[in-house]
Amino acid sequence: MSVIDLNSDVGESFGNWSFGDDAAILASVSSANVACGFHAGDPVGIRATVRAAVRTGTTVGAHPGYRDLAGFGRRFIDMDPGELRDDVIYQIGALQALARAEGTTVRYVKPHGALYNTIVHHEVQAQAVVDAVRAVDSALPMLVLPGSVVERRAAEAGLRTVAEAFADRAYRPDGTLVPRSQQGAVLHDMDQILEHVFRLVDGAVRAVDGTVLPVNAGSICVHGDSPGAVAMAENIHRELTAQGVTVQSFA
């Protein structure tokens, strides 16, 4: 693969609580998954993140999640599908307005946290998210875990999907992510992360049991709130470029 997208979750600071260095990490990634206010983010901070993305030429995407500020959107919520659909529509719309105020647009959607993981296997919630994206703009691509229910549902609805992999997360043998509650779920060693990323670029991932799984990823996520996230993104971008891989947004 000679071209790959690097994405990062940003815009997640809220009031006096600061998460990540958005301005710094945006210099190394090509797509910004911007929080929409339900799991994290406030209007001032979200708009500032969009403004920073405009300065760095980074593509802006919506990062909607469950209405769960206290849990940072990392707790499953058993929602009525119509309510979930409208919550996602609301969040995309809020980011669209702030992006327009900064002279740019929302170009894709990536669900956040527990919602992202739930729609890997939950048929009803996956359909609700797909319905929301289609209602807002059927031309918006969705970043999804490959082989997930939402990937299938989106394709059935005529939406474009882009398979995503994770630079700093461990994988289970079934291709899903190791839950954050388990030891070793998040990778921290830079050499291990780079080996992991280059394997992803080559179309594979090594699971925690040593199994090598095929992965056709169009985008690789570097979590913006991880310790050392800025240095991680800089290293990944630099090493990919050195090996002739172009970092470029899929959208």
Automatic annotation (TrEMBL):
CDD domains: LamB_YcsF_like. Keywords: ATP-binding, Hydrolase, Nucleotide-binding. It is an enzyme of class 3 (hydrolase). It catalyses: 5-oxo-L-proline + ATP + 2 H2O = L-glutamate + ADP + phosphate + H(+). GO terms for molecular function: 5-oxoprolinase (ATP-hydrolyzing) activity. SUPFAM superfamilies: Glycoside hydrolase/deacetylase. Gene3D superfamilies: Glycoside hydrolase/deacetylase. The keyword Hydrolase applies. Catalyzes the cleavage of 5-oxoproline to form L-glutamate coupled to the hydrolysis of ATP to ADP and inorganic phosphate. NCBIfam families: PRK05406.1-3, PRK05406.1-5. This is 5-oxoprolinase subunit A.
